[in-house]
Amino acid sequence: xxxxxxxxxxxxxxxxxxxxxxxxxxxxxxxxxxxxxxxxxxxxxxxxxxxxxxxxxxxxxxxxxxxxxxxxxxxxxxxxxxxxxx
Length: 86
Prior knowledge:
Blueprint: E1 14-24, E2 29-38, E3 42-46, E4 56-61, E5 66-75, E6 78-83
Antiparallel strand pairs: 1-2, 1-4, 2-3, 3-6, 4-5, 5-6
Domain PilZ: 16-85
Protein name: PilZ domain-containing protein
GO molecular function, one term: cyclic-di-GMP binding
């Protein structure tokens, strides 16, 4: 975001550098990703190469937890997601 773009986040995010997996096609496919920042309500996810992700997917953290996500913004190989469930 720049100075003219409003921050519409409900909650502030904390910088992170955590590995995770994006689960696609009813868990038949998975993509490795890196979580760049994280809050209880969403995350910024980075992929090693630009990829066309669907609007909704599951995100599996290193500890095995999963969160259902909806993409809120896209920028080349980075995505901002909102968690749909707690």
